[in-house]
């Protein structure tokens, strides 16, 4: 009898340990987002005001889940406050609207530096000599559950929603890419037919961007996307959200693929731009 009681107690304790996080999350999501948090989204992410009410509600829910589940760590003496948390989570969760995916299940921690940060990079030549260089970074996405961001560039990326440059969208696109098991420019798409279609369209546009970059021809996609298929996906994500009209006009098949994947049409959130020649823009830095 005593053994039975002990067994039942252990089973109940295990069940409680398994169910508690889900219960706490549901309880957190039942509470409406505090008004000061909504005000930050509205103030720092201009596109928020352009979303239809149901999408705003979805975004607030996902942001609340993001804030509940992810740790934020300030680096180089930065103290991470609500403004930083909301501005980062708000943009990251834009990529999840209308999609059944969970909120970056592989992500655990967001590290935030005050500005561009230096990281050592080792390069090994054929003779086995390791040369250490240090590069300025605006952001990094790791497959082990970390995203690293420069707050300066997060703020800049959020404030101008039409320049095609957004470090949060870029790094979180890398996170989505890695959910498929490898960072190769193809996020989880479901059926083999979707992967075939995706590969066909993206490899064509990737090749044309590599050629544009090589011959220094202007492209609506930042030349940094020519670095690799993974960078192409991240750069094209920035362009899809920030320059949707131009992307749809110049790369209609690519735009259609992204519309199917992200399940939104960002043209609904911004007016068509005036037909003026664009300046080439680029970070000129690694991310
Ligand atoms: Zn990148």
TrEMBL record:
<protein>
    <recommendedName>
        <fullName>Zinc-dependent peptidase</fullName>
    </recommendedName>
</protein>
<dbReference type="InterPro" id="IPR010384">
    <property type="entry name" value="MtfA_fam"/>
</dbReference>
<dbReference type="InterPro" id="IPR024079">
    <property type="entry name" value="MetalloPept_cat_dom_sf"/>
</dbReference>
<dbReference type="Pfam" id="PF06167">
    <property type="entry name" value="Peptidase_M90"/>
</dbReference>
<dbReference type="GO" id="GO:0004177">
    <property type="term" value="F:aminopeptidase activity"/>
</dbReference>
<dbReference type="GO" id="GO:0008237">
    <property type="term" value="F:metallopeptidase activity"/>
</dbReference>
<dbReference type="GO" id="GO:0005829">
    <property type="term" value="C:cytosol"/>
</dbReference>
<dbReference type="InterPro" id="IPR042252">
    <property type="entry name" value="MtfA_N"/>
</dbReference>
